[in-house]
Specification:
This protein is mainly α and 321 residues long. The chain is built from 19 helices and no strands. 44% of the residues are buried.
Amino acid sequence: QLTATFKCREALKAFGNLPPAHLHSGWVQGRLGQCHFEMVDYSRCVECFRRVRKLEPWCAHGLEYFSTSLWHLKKEVELSYLAQEVTEFDKLSASTWIVVGNCLSLQKEHDTALKFFRRASQVDPFSAWAYTLSAHEFVANEDFEKALCGYRQAIGVNPRHYNAWYGMGNIYFRQEKYDLAAYHFKRALAINPRNTVLYCFLGMVQHNNNQNREALQALTKAEKLEPNNSLAKYQKARVYFTLQRYHEALDVLEEVRDFAPKEASVHFLMGKVCKRLGKVNEAILHFTTTLDLNPKDKNVVKNAIDKLHVGDNESQSDDEL
């Protein structure tokens, strides 16, 4: 019941109270992996399902979580091995073809991946994951109409499949339809109110829609759920920058830099903040670091350096990295 309502921390605690013989069974380890997946802890999810594969190599349950976590972690070799292993064992399981599709998706073979996700939906027409992952591939190909259709199919099969609601919100966000995007992210959060990624994207949408107070609330919620969430902190700093709360923005960015010292966008925003605070030398240092980390954006960075001595009123429309 706890996992079904996405109360993952409570579920992990409850599973932890089980006797060792039960705790280390394949069934429980699979549920632990699912909880870690929903908490966006892909490394621990993978650890749990590795144990499941050793204990019950014939079990197909949860392979969508396992393979999707491997996809997020870019574990191409392990995902390829898993795909080979499951296709040799069971070709009549939708989970098998989802693993293969994820493997091909990681290799950027989106059209081929689509064929296998379609195969998964043919084997099991009630697999919401198959429709959602197909839609993700359409997004990768920038075919948004077909992607929306796929997400709607997933919701038709399982209205509580929040991943599909998130996918639709992400498309509307990219299309700058911010009200629609916010609606779909809120629908996803109504199902899974403890997902930090959903709060981050809701905050990003609200920020772009000039709803800065609401954006701060969403991003603060994400931070409370996951104190080390660098995306939430970075987006929070962007909101502070918009609100001209530069000292608070700089404090948050310094935290983010400690987590992600090689993230060019962090240094670029720090440069912009330092400029507004009159710290020209520090701004130059951050812009130079940005240039070292991401030479592809040299024109944007050089433009920001050229504007260092321009007054704030003349440079309100600074470039974004």
